[in-house]
Amino acid sequence: MKPKWLQPALTLLAILVILIALNALFGFLRLRFDLTADRIYTLSGGTKEILGKLETPVQARIYAGASDGLMPPLLKNYARRVEELLREMSQASGGKLEVRVLDPKPDSDAEDSAKLDGIEPQALPNGESVTLGVSFTSLDRKSAIPFLSPERERLLEYDLARAIGQVRSDQKPVLGVMSPLPVMGNPWMMMMGRQGPPPWVLAEELRRNFDVREVPPASEEIPADISVLLVIHPKNISPAAEYALDQFVLRGGRLIVFLDPYCLFDGGFGGPMGPQGTSSDLPNLLPAWGIQFTSAQAVADLTFEGRTREGRAPWLLDLNRTVFNPNDPLTADIETLMLAFAGAFSGNATEGLKQEILFTSSADSQLVDPIFARVSPEAVVRDFSPSGEKKALAIRLTGKFKTAFPEGKPQTEGAEGQEESAKTPEGLKESAAETSVILVGDADFIQDPLTVTEVRGLLPGGRVFIPINGNLAFAQAAVEQLSGDMSLISLRGRAVGRRPFLVLREMAAAAEKKFQATIRELEASLQDTQNRLAELERGKQEGQKYVLTAEQQKEIERFRATEADVRARLKATRRELRAEIDALETRLKWLNIAAVPVAVAIGGLAFGLWRRRHSRAR
Amino acid sequence: MNSVWTLVKRELGGFFGSPIAYVFIVIFLVLAGFFTFMVGGFLARGEADLQVFFFWLPWLYLFLVPAAGMRMWAEERRMGTLELLFTLPASPWQIILGKFLAAWAVIAIALLLTFPIPLTANYLGNPDNGVILAGYLGALLLAAAYLAITSATSALTRNQVISFILSAAVLLFLVLAGWPPVTDFVAQWAGQSIVDAIAGMSVMTHFEAIQRGILDVRDVFYFASVVFFGLAATAVILRSHRS
């Protein structure tokens, strides 16, 4: 005797199984619509270009699996997305890119292959390990991404395209790095067995695409095989070194220089005042190119003001697209940039050179003394007087350069006699072909503390660096643009997804200005009162020791009262400052939580009453 | 299709003719607003996106959708009007669909009435409206899936409260199916493919995928499958009651 519910239950079970099967089948379909404004999930033009340029076939091998067979769902889903993206890329390459998925089970061929390709399994908390990496091979060239971390998903397309680019038959250009700062890490300290600073994230990233060579800061000649030179914070650069750069540019080399009026992350930890910043400039080259740089002053900006743990920081510039060059590939895909104590460029490029401004400050900016700004940011804000014009923080000069040393190589101080100098060969006077130089007014711009944040990652022992702004993307794009590889450029800048509440920020800035004058007055008055009080107190000690005259007593009381009064007014003014923003926030909260429900409730009641009246009438 | 439309109108009339729809909408809006702004710190967060809002939605729906749908069939069965309903010149499928669509419409209207929130985001900053649109689409699909399950549990019993509890329980399972503690538990006595199957059934995986801004046919198909299954279950259960 079959129970009554058996038939329906079986039917439902059948339907369930069919649906699950269908869903699984659908798993092979790849049809989706990217609704994001930045189309972050669609292949970009740059990727398609790179894929189109593939001449020889490239084999991509995705290694995905766990040592015990149970991959965490998060990684499994991510692995699926990686495979999908690669298959899309394969389609875009017209078949030149072949994709295979392998599970590196213990003691399998796939596991050996993974090891050979440089794929690194990651340890899981339960003792097992998981693998998610991809390798690319083409002929005899190989590249790999040892571990694909889900936190870096927004850069996935870029990472893959770059790895593919690395196995193309093209040669890796040679990039020189010239800096007194430990950009590449400090090998001397490591050789002495001490833990030195690790290489900058920028250095690691550049190494992937380029053959990176260190060039000593005091070099008098740049090696001939270097095609792009990155000069970072050339403090106290000697004329001879500047001459080396001059000749480098004239022979067609591409130069990127990061200058700084106050390099925050240089100089170790200094004395009791904390780290002492240093400044850098190109005193001979810049004037020859028609450019001036504010090597003793930094730009403070109230529209793009940042914050540090200690509070306001008008010297910390948190720039957005509104001040980026909209047409330049370097800034086209970047959302935000951050600079600390940046200097500004001004002047007109000399004849034969074209100047392109890459990004600026706002018009609400002012040049300030960097040390003063660092010690008293509040004072900077208070006494702010905007210059009314945007300051250029990064520029590119393109064209044919003329030498900055028409007399030839500058003489080195003392030592060798006149005969030596007579033997130095004549240098180049003018560049034969067009070349390009990029100048950026901040050397902290590309340092780790300002550009990346370290994320624990989901797996222990996994350290991942996530860019927190477009700085690294900009720097890499600059290097790549000047090294001639344009296709990779449009892939950058997707790392940043921050869309802040601009309105609240502007309101805060506007409110500041409004109350600035009042606060300044009150603070000055407070200072006066306190000075007077101190005087009075001192006055009493001189003569009478312990006994005060009645007048002195009264005066002290009066000034104490004034002090309290001014303090209260100061507090009140500061509260008024926030009042506007708080009012807006409260209004918004009410609007969002109560407005529509109340309207619906009223509407419902009205409707109900209307209906009741109507039905009664019948 | 005409009969479906007539049924929808009839049901909607029922919803809006009594305080039910209004109460549901008001409670939903107040809770959504409260969780987004007060608990979620929407303004303090400073980011122009609706992530906070969409984070709370599946959990809000977990309670509110069963509440909205629990009377769908339980009421008819309790009052004995079920037979009457099926004498209407419409096939059982059309009737089930009609009721479902009407309830879904109420939820959709409530969702639309959250428009102040994306408006606020647009006023304060420059959000990615494509992602917001995707989020709303995902929310609609999520609600449809929840509602279909509720429809089935509502057909199972005459008691609305039991329907509510059953529905909430099933939905909770669907939501948590992809959660590591659950998958680990299943993994102890089942193979990888079963674990995968169960994790793939989780509503959250598909909802979060859509919320990122991608409208993938597979995620849409998933929600459509859940709706189909729920409504099919409703039909099967109702038929077994009548025979």
Shape of chain A: flat
Total strands of chain B: the figure is: 1
Biggest pleated-sheet summary of chain A? 7 strands, mixed
Count of DSSP strands of chain A: 24
Assembly classification? heterodimer
Structural class of chain A: alpha+beta
Structural class of chain B: mainly alpha
| Rg of chain B (CA only) | 19 Å
Low-confidence stretches of chain B: none
Can you give the helix content of chain B as a percent range? over 70%
- The Cα radius of gyration of chain A reads 32 Å
Mean pLDDT rating of chain B:
86
End-to-end Cα distance of chain B:
27 Å
Q: Helical proportion of chain A?
A: 40-55%
Number of helices of chain A: 17
How far the N terminus sits from the C terminus of chain A, by CA atoms, comes to: 57 Å
Find the biggest chain interface. Answer: A-B, 56 and 66 residues
Q: How does the major sheet of chain B shape up?
A: none
Q: Strand fraction band of chain A?
A: 15-25%
Strand order of the largest sheet of chain A: 8-7-9-10-22-21-19
Low confidence ranges of chain A: 414-424, 492-497
Structure in words:
Chain A is α+β, with helices and mostly antiparallel strands and 618 residues long. In chain A, 40% of the residues lie in helices and 20% in strands. In chain A, the strands form 7 sheets. Chain A has a 7-stranded mixed sheet, with helices on both faces. In chain A, strands 2, 3, 4, 5 and 6 form a 5-stranded mixed sheet that branches. In chain A, α8 links the parallel β9 (228-232) and β10. The longest helix of chain A has 68 residues, at 550-617. Chain A starts with 5 loop residues before the first helix and ends with a helix. The model of chain A is unreliable at 414-424 and 492-497 (pLDDT under 50). Chain B has 243 residues and is an all-alpha fold. Chain B has 14 helices and 1 strand; from the N terminus they run αααααααααααααβα. Chain B has helices at residues 2-17, 19-39, 42-45, 51-69, 71-79, 82-86, 92-112, 116-124, 129-156, 160-176, 180-187, 192-200, 203-211, 217-242, and one strand at 214-216. The model of chain B has no long low-confidence stretch (mean pLDDT 86). At the A-B interface, α1, β1, α3, α16 and α17 of A face α2, α8, α9, α11 and α12 of B.
